[in-house]
Write a structure and sequence with these properties.
InterPro entries: BaiN-like, BaiN-like_dom_sf, FAD/NAD-bd_sf, RsdA/BaiN/AoA(So)-like_dom, RsdA/BaiN/AoA(So)_Rossmann
Bound molecules: dihydroflavine-adenine dinucleotide
Number of helices: 13
Helix content: 25-40%
Strand order of the largest sheet: 19-18-15-16-17-14-20
Protein name: NAD(P)/FAD-dependent oxidoreductase
Cofactor: FAD
Keywords: FAD, Flavoprotein
Radius of gyration: 24 Å
Number of domains: 2
Length: 392
């Protein structure tokens, strides 16, 4: 049986794999882009509520979590949000900034996939979609990949099959398995950008399902000011998703429900509106159902004039540092990304190549680089894909 030869085989036609393929293809390399799914970029299609938050203009290495926080710096500096925007503009895709530097398509995420596929076609990239990869071997300086009974060979292999999040969309640990097979170390994976679950002690909050509030969520020294959303299982919303990427099991997170209140706000309220009920004062700053639950937990009630300043100060401090004790998360089934992955220690920052396995590269979410919510993960996929695409 004769094998088809390429300069590079890229496993995974998601964000990172598409970018690596179009980059290498347009450099004149013969590239095979492989995916077990029947169509490319399935996560791009569902991202950003179908509008794809394709980058963030505030991209910087400190917005990524990794065992080596400096690793992402080089690739991110060489392929920036402005570079991706230039591509988007060239394809006349309309976009807008939603909030916090997050750029979205005005129309549909499908435009991004179509753009990347058109660029791949310009580069003469070959596609093998819809069949499982049944084997990957390395001998005599060549990688041999078996797909549907056919062998494909190349001196370079790029692992771009993403992380473990949303298995029902076809996510697998394939890149991690191949990395281990070739002796590369893998940082323990965990679900990230994921909702928290609350146990029986905090079940009262689960009854607030659907209520949201602007908060500061804190874990250790890391804090995010965004919306929090109560769900029937626990806590979600951008603030909670962000902090979940840092959280460690069996530790509390702290929520400031009064991010804009001055330190003596409740005492000032007492002076300004002495006849106002404590719960009414709290409900002036928070959704009513949430205010009621918090007041119930604080065990303080009555007219403000009847409450001592010390008790009010104490209540306000509690509302500004409310501890929640998640008993877990909703796991990979609901996680937007996977933290951990192929260790950055074994990869070159410049080419994404594994030093001890020549020709083997890893990019995107499969690597131990996890961005904040808000377009940072796609920017990492584009930047790391570009870095590998320029090297293979
Ligand atoms: P990605 O998962 O995109 O691609 C991997 C590819 O490999 C897939 O096409 C898969 O089919 C294929 N594959 C997997 N196993 C394989 C195997 N065994 N054999 C062959 N192929 C295999 N980020 C962001 O910046 N902005 C946003 O708006 C969003 N929104 C969002 C919404 C939702 C619901 C999720 C789940 C995630 C996001 N993200 C996001 C995160 C973002 O989607 C993610 O970080 C990137 O898609 C990662 O790109 P990769 O190319 O590394 O993996």
């Amino acid at each position: 049986m004769s094998a088809t030869s390429y300069d590079a085989i890229i496993l995974g036609a998601g964000a990172a794999g598409l970018m690596a393929a179009l980059t290498a293809g347009q450099r004149g390399r013969r590239v095979l882009l492989v995916d077990h799914a029947g169509e490319p970029g399935k996560k791009i299609l569902i991202s950003g509520g179908g509008r794809c938050n394709f980058t963030n203009i505030h991209t910087a290495a400190d917005r990524y979590i990794s065992e080596n926080p400096h690793f992402a710096r080089s690739a991110l500096a060489r392929y920036t949000p402005a570079d991706f925007l230039e591509l988007v503009n060239r394809h006349s895709i309309a976009w807008h900034e939603k909030t916090l530097g997050q750029l979205f398509c005005d129309g549909s995420a499908r435009q991004i996939v179509e753009m990347l596929m058109a660029e791949c076609r310009d580069g003469g990239v070959s596609f093998a979609f819809g069949d499982p990869v049944s084997g990957v071997e390395h001998a005599d300086g060549r990688y041999r990949v078996m797909i549907d009974g056919r062998e494909h060979q190349a001196p370079s292999l790029v692992l771009a099959t993403g992380g473990l999040s949303i298995p029902k969309m076809g996510a697998t640990g394939f890149a991690l398995d191949i990395a281990r097979k070739f002796g590369l170390s893998v940082v323990q994976t965990r679900p990230a950008l994921v909702p928290f679950t609350l146990g029986e002690d905090e079940a009262l909050f689960r009854s607030l399902s659907g209520v949201s509030a602007d908060v500061i969520a804190r874990w250790g020294k890391t804090a995010f000011r965004e919306a929090a959303l109560f769900t029937h299982k626990g806590l979600s919303g951008p603030a909670m998703l962000q902090i979940s990427s840092y959280w460690q099991h069996r530790t509390p997170i702290e929520v400031n429900f009064l991010p804009d209140a001055g330190t003596d706000w409740l005492i000032e309220e007492k002076q300004a509106r002495p006849r106002s009920a404590f719960r009414t004062a709290i409900a002036r700053r928070l959704p009513e159902r949430l205010a009621e639950t918090l007041v119930e937990r604080l065990g303080l009630d009555g007219e403000l004039s009847t409450l001592r300043d010390g008790a009010l100060r104490n209540a306000q401090e509690k509302l500004a540092r409310w501890p929640f004790h998640p008993n877990g998360t909703e796991g990979y089934a609901k996680a937007e990304v996977t933290a951990g992955g192929i260790s950055t220690r074994v990869l070159s920052q410049k080419t994404m190549e594994a030093g001890k396995v020549p020709g083997l590269h890893a990019i995107g979410e499969a690597v131990d680089v996890t961005g904040w919510l808000g377009g940072y993960n796609f920017q990492w996929a584009w930047a790391s894909g570009r870095a590998a695409g320029e090297a293979i």
